[in-house]
Design brief:
Strand 1 and strand 2 form a beta hairpin. Helix content is 42%, strand content 15%. It has 6 helices and 5 strands; from the N terminus they run αααβββαββαα. The chain is an alpha+beta fold and 168 residues long.
Length: 168
């Protein structure tokens, strides 16, 4: 069995826990500065945002607007919209970046790997054949092929175009 080690995450999670008393997801949801915070789809109960610390190019998070720690605490409407938005974001990522596959995951609780355990969120990670190579093993370096600003612009433009086409 192969393992992907990400020891940098521990330092990030510990720093985040000490530095911030409020919830980053609640803060960016309430701010309504979608471009600044890289939110590329916003719905009444959930939003999709690019991950600032991606495992792969286009790694995003689908997050309920309401602060809850577990999917079992979501209302039926919130859960339905979260899953619908996951499918919508996956479709948008598929159209824009054409990955060969996806990883989808929810980490419930800190021991399960949740960097922000108080606010449940779904990871959506596009994958390409050969996307994680020797760099992460030999040089402790991840190769992310595009900047977050470029990724955001592509997703935002595609999302706007999709809705313009639907209105005609």
């Amino acid at each position: 069995m192969e393992r992907l080690w990400a020891p940098w995450r521990a330092a990030y999670v510990n720093k985040l826990a000490i530095k911030k008393k409020s919830c980053v997801f609640c803060d960016i949801c309430k701010a309504h500065k979608d471009k600044q915070h890289l939110i590329f789809i916003r719905k009444p109960y959930a939003f999709a945002v690019l991950n600032l610390y991606p495992y792969s190019n286009g790694h995003c998070l689908v997050v309920p607007n309401r602060h809850v720690s577990d999917i079992s605490k979501l209302t039926t409407e919130e859960y339905a919209q979260l899953m619908g938005l996951l499918i919508e974001a996956k479709g948008l990522l598929q159209k824009v970046f054409k990955p060969h596959g996806f990883n989808v995951g929810i980490n419930l609780g800190r021991v399960a790997g949740a960097g922000i355990p108080g606010h449940v969120h779904v990871h959506l990670v596009p994958r390409w054949k050969g996307d994680h190579n020797f760099m992460s093993v030999t040089a402790s370096t991840k190769v992310i092929s595009q900047s977050l600003a470029v990724l955001y612009k592509k997703l935002d433009d595609a999302n706007k175009k999709r809705y313009r086409g639907a209105r005609k």
